[in-house]
Write a structure and sequence with these properties.
This protein is of the alpha+beta class and 395 residues long. It has four domains: 87 residues, conserved putative lor/sdh protein from methanococcus maripaludis s2 fold; 109 residues, Beta Barrel (Elongation Factor Tu (Ef-tu), domain 3), CATH 2.40.30.170; 63 residues, RNA polymerase II/Efflux pump adaptor protein, barrel-sandwich hybrid domain (OB fold (Dihydrolipoamide Acetyltransferase, E2P)); 80 residues. It is built from seven helices and 23 strands. A hairpin with a 5-residue loop joins strand 18 and strand 19. The longest helix has 37 residues.
């Protein structure tokens, strides 16, 4: 019995070892097993979109500078002292056609007219006397029973004196007409409705003929000169003058629409010296709003100002409208084909706007156009659509 405690001490550790081994075996057999999963298809993740054909009006936006359609430089045709200046002769003032702007002293020209009129009256009296003398000469010749011929007859009948008297009257009438025109030129008037841009006449100044007194620009119309992309110019070249005028033209100033009537006048026969692009001329009617109702908003257009021009060039039916940002090098698109491979697809671009390109050939409604920008795009590279990748992640 003395050996029982010793045996017990040996069996307890042994039982603990056996129990531990049993527990470890049980844990290993009941642990969750890792599931084998088929690896996902590898490919660069991209987003795609599709397009449908629709009607679209090709619109071109460009910029142009305002310039005067008509300029007037008023010069004096006569010499003299300026005796009067109109209060309206101030830069920036609008004046109507025929408005008196400056007055040159007319005294000398009025005196010249009076002198010529007196000389003309005297010459007409001399003609009457000469005609009476010729009548007397004819009677005397008839009573003399002489029949002179040629020069002798002409001298006897005083025909040279009569011709000379008539010539003197004609000369004086011409001089009188010139003198009256000179008197009219003493009144410097506006040749058209317009804005005074420069004043060079001062009260009391003595001016000579051909001195510039006033400069002004017409206010009925202004011009806009703008450049066009060569592709847009091709559309306009095929239009008649009337068709050009009917095209819709809208103007903007700092993104604010201007309520003015503008129309294309013509394509100019020259290229822009800087951009080497075609140029177009646009006419703005009533640019200062002088013909509109008093309560209506009038535009504030200044010569030399730059405006944005939106022109509706041509209407298309059944055309693909592709965002410019999706257009790739050499007029191509990146498309994901049925095999989820990249296909670089060439297209035919009809025209380009600021944000869109119009395409009539090369795109199908089923084409998945890649909208994701790829740093390196290689024909046939593997792709995976982002929507599909998300869907697989949810399963």
């Amino acid at each position: 019995m003395k050996n029982s405690p010793i045996l017990l001490k040996l069996l307890v550790p042994l039982l603990i070892i056996i129990l531990g081994a049993f527990i470890i075996k049980q844990l290993m057999t009941t642990a969750p097993q890792a599931q084998t999963q088929k690896p996902a298809t590898s490919g660069l993740l991209v987003q795609t979109t599709t397009l449908q054909p629709k009607a679209h009006t090709l619109t071109l936006s460009t910029v142009g500078s305002i310039e005067a359609s008509q300029k007037g430089v008023l010069s004096s045709k006569v010499s003299g002292k300026i005796t009067a200046i109109s209060p309206e002769l101030t830069p920036g003032t609008f004046v109507r056609k025929g408005t008196l702007l400056a007055q040159i002293d007319p005294t000398d020209y009025e005196a010249s007219i009076a002198q010529l009129e007196a000389q003309l009256s005297s010459a007409k009296a001399a003609l009457m006397i000469e005609e009476g003398q010729q009548a007397s000469a004819k009677k005397e010749l008839a009573l003399s029973n002489i029949e002179p011929v040629g020069l002798s007859r002409s001298l006897l009948l005083r025909e040279p004196q009569l011709i000379q008297a008539k010539a003197s009257i004609a000369s004086l009438e011409a001089s009188l007409k010139t003198a009256k025109n000179n008197l009219k030129e003493c009144h410097i008037t506006a040749p058209f409705d317009g804005i005074i841009t420069q004043k060079k006449a001062e009260l009391g100044n003595y001016i000579s003929a051909q001195n510039t007194l006033v400069e002004m620009v017409a206010s009925d119309t202004y011009w806009l000169t703008a450049t066009l992309p060569s592709q847009a110019a091709t559309f306009l070249n095929n239009l008649s003058h009337d068709e050009l005028k009917r095209l819709s033209v809208r103007l903007r100033k700092s993104d604010t629409p201007l309520h003015v009537k503008a129309s294309i006048t013509k394509l100019l026969p020259e290229l822009d010296t800087t951009t080497k692009q075609p140029k177009i001329l646009i006419t703005i009617e009533d640019p200062l709003g002088l013909k509109v109702h008093k309560n209506a908003k009038t535009p504030s257009l200044l010569l030399g100002e730059t405006l944005t021009i939106d022109m509706a060039l041509k209407h298309f039916e059944n055309v693909m409208v592709v965002p410019i940002k999706l257009l790739r090098a050499n007029d191509t698109l990146w498309v994901m084909n049925e095999s989820q491979k990249l296909h670089i697809k060439p297209i035919t671009v009809l025209a380009k706007e600021k944000e869109f390109a119009l395409v009539q050939e090369g795109i199908l409604p089923t084409d998945k156009i890649i909208t994701t920008y790829l740093t390196t795009a290689v024909e046939g590279m593997a792709l995976q659509e982002i929507t599909e990748a998300k869907g697989k992640g949810k399963q």
